[in-house]
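Give me the fold.
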Amino acid sequence: MKSELTSLLLLLTILFHGAQAQESDLANSEEEKNIFSLALAYTFIPAATTQDNIQEGHFVPGIGLDYFRRINPQFELGIMADIELGSYLIPRNNDLIRDKALVIALVGSYAFSESWAIFLGPGFELERHHSFPIFRLGTEYLFTLPNAHFIPLGIFYDAKEGYDAWSICLGYGIRF
């Protein structure tokens, strides 16, 4: 787990250093470059079950915090951090127990319009029983509110070690 955190921190440092270098070209822009949002999510894990239920497929609620930095009008770099607020089991030879897992992903985002974007990037799922890398792919639509506020509605897919997860989220955000 220590090497996973070290790798994630190194990747964050490299990407944000590159973002700051590109930012100098945008220094004269008055556009808000920082984006922060808080979201409630509901995740479906098709391969999961609970300890007392033998049916596969389990829903887990979660909370997400996202921070993005706008590089140019179409591209953003960001960190998505989600905590799953439940426990579940992935049946295997050695059952994989997941209990309040923390998922952190470093993503790049491409905006098709002011309201709609896709994102993808690597990350880690950190959990006390077993942590491993993930890959996230998703899309998000922003409902614009006054004063740089917005409501994001997102759907994303996490490819994990031997299983996957689908999430839908609704949140509240601000650009500054």
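The chain has one domain: 2-175.
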